[in-house]
Every structure is written in C-alpha cells, then in structure tokens.
Amino acid sequence: MKNPRNVASMFAGWGDGADLPRRQVGVLPLRKGPDGGLQVMLITSRETRRWVIPKGWPMRGLKNHEAAAREAYEEAGLIGRVSKHAVGSYLYHKRLKSRDTVLCQVQVFRLDVRKQLKNWPEQQEREGRWFSASEAAEAVTEAGLAALIRAIASRETKPGKRRLQGAAQV
C-alpha cells in the first residue's frame, strides 16, 4: 500500500507528496529577565547566521519534545523543563548544503530554561543571546515564528494565565 501521506497529498493536488513540508522540532527557550519580563534565547543559524530557535530533525527513539530539548542542549547548552505538547508551529525555507531549499514545518515546544551550561557541542559554531520577547520577535525573519513569540509573550503578561515557572537566571 502507498504511504498514506502521499495518498492524501495526491488527493489534495500535491502530486507525489514532494511539495509537503519536511517536519522539524524546536524549542522556544524562555526565562524571566532581571526586570521580571519574559526573555527568549535565540541562536544564529550555521549557514546564514540569522537569528533562529534551537531546532532540528525528529530523532528515532525520542518523542518530539525530547528531540527538541536535545537540540536546545546541543545548539545552545540549555537545560530546562520542556513542554510535552507543542505551543505552535511555523514554516520556513531551509537552505541545504547543496544550496537548494526545502520547505520545513517546525513543531515548537516551550522550554523553561533552568541553566545554560559552560560547554556544549555546538558552542563554537553559533552565537546565542537573550532577547526581550518583543526584540526576539523583531530579530527573527520567519513571520510565523515572530507571531508565535508574540503570542506566548501576550499569554505570559495576562493575569491568571500560565507564567514562567521555576526558571532561574542563567
């Protein structure tokens, strides 16, 4: 039997499914800043050096939220509590080593950061920086990611809504 995803895409007019976005997982790393406001950690991508969140491909043997947390460790040295349910998703065009681009959909999980390690695997390959939520939304180039950051920040500031819990200053 054909792959159900490919069959569904044929009925939707997408041919063999090659045009469907590739799936990735990522985290939105959050902490309270010195002023008590929400801060977001962004890192630079390796190829284009644009501001992004830690993300990557799903990993065999790990649930999506676990794989996303692993990317946060590898790319930014971040340790914390990751949500089991995605807070949203966004689309972007990933440039491959071949210089081709592919459409990716990133499933984003919240990461309440407890600490940032002194050493981590990709420390020499990327720059990381804490931004206010509004600065982070302006710094990213993907409109869907900017909207997701703004939505999370809006929820954090509303009375009675979920607040950043247990996140230490790092």
Please name the defining characteristics of this protein.
Nucleoside Triphosphate Pyrophosphohydrolase, eight-stranded mixed sheet, alpha+beta, single chain, 170 residues, 4 helices, globular, disordered N terminus
Please give the structural blueprint.
Blueprint: H1 4-11, E1 22-32, E2 38-44, E3 51-52, E4 55-56, H2 64-76, E5 78-82, E6 88-95, E7 101-116, E8 128-132, H3 133-139, H4 143-157
Parallel strand pairs: 1-7
Antiparallel strand pairs: 1-2, 1-4, 2-3, 2-8, 5-7, 6-7
Helix pairs in contact: 3-4
Structure characterization notes:
The protein has 170 residues and is α+β, with helices and mostly antiparallel strands. The chain has a single domain (20-157), classed as Nucleoside Triphosphate Pyrophosphohydrolase, CATH 3.90.79.10. It has helices spanning 4-11, 64-76, 133-139, 143-157, and strands spanning 22-32, 38-44, 51-52, 55-56, 78-82, 88-95, 101-116, 128-132. Strands 1, 2, 3, 4, 5, 6, 7 and 8 form an eight-stranded mixed sheet that branches. The chain is globular and about 45 Å long.
